[in-house]
Amino acid sequence: LCVLGAPRGGSGALPPEKPFNISCWSRNMKDLTCRWTPGAHGETFLHTNYSLKYKLRWYGQDNTCEEYHTVGPHSCHIPKDLALFTPYEIWVEATNRLGSARSDVLTLDVLDVVTTDPPPDVHVSRVGG
Predict the structure, then answer these.
(1) Alpha-carbon span 92 to 9, nearest angstrom
(2) Which of 23, 59, 66, 106 is 20 to 30 A (C-alpha) from 77?
(3) CA 39 to CA 20: how far, in whole Å?
(4) Backbone phi, then psi, for 16, in 5-degree steps?
């Protein structure tokens, strides 16, 4: 779980707001890294746990990402065991002692979010005037 926030007494404490702006990418078609933005007002003045969940769209069971903070405070990496040619549903759940909130579901196919490394040893030269 990704735990953010610090307790600050009882006044001003809020339940979490819905996380948003989930984006994901894959480096090798076998993994997936996702990041998100916490609720619009951010700090709830309570410890807030963020869980990235994912499942195969039509028949999968819910899974929870386990490698948090891989590319920043609101991120998680799924290192292996992903299916190709099948859409995944991905969402983030935010929970603190006053309640919980769930993001909208992002649907994606791993093959649609692959980012490849640039070609090695590329040189640029000026041609003409």
Answers:
(1) 26
(2) 59
(3) 7
(4) -70, 150
d(CA 44, CA 15): 6
Predicted local distance difference test score (pLDDT) of residue 41: 64
Looking at residue 77, what is its pLDDT? 97
Nearest CA to 3 among 102, 95, 92?
A: 95
Residues 6+ apart with CB under 8 A from 80: 30, 31
4-12 long-range contacts (CB < 8 A, ≥24 apart) are: 4/38, 4/47, 4/48, 4/50, 4/73, 4/74, 5/43, 5/44, 5/45, 5/46, 5/47, 5/48, 5/96, 6/47, 7/45, 7/46, 7/47, 8/45, 9/45, 12/45
- DSSP annotation string for 49-97: EEEEEEEETTTPPPEE--EESSSSTTEEEE-S-PPSSS-EEEEEEEEET
CA nearest neighbour of 36 among 86, 9, 73, 61: 73
Q: Is the model's pTM score more than 0.85?
A: no
Q: How many residues does the chain have?
A: 129
Below-50 pLDDT ranges, the chain:
5-9
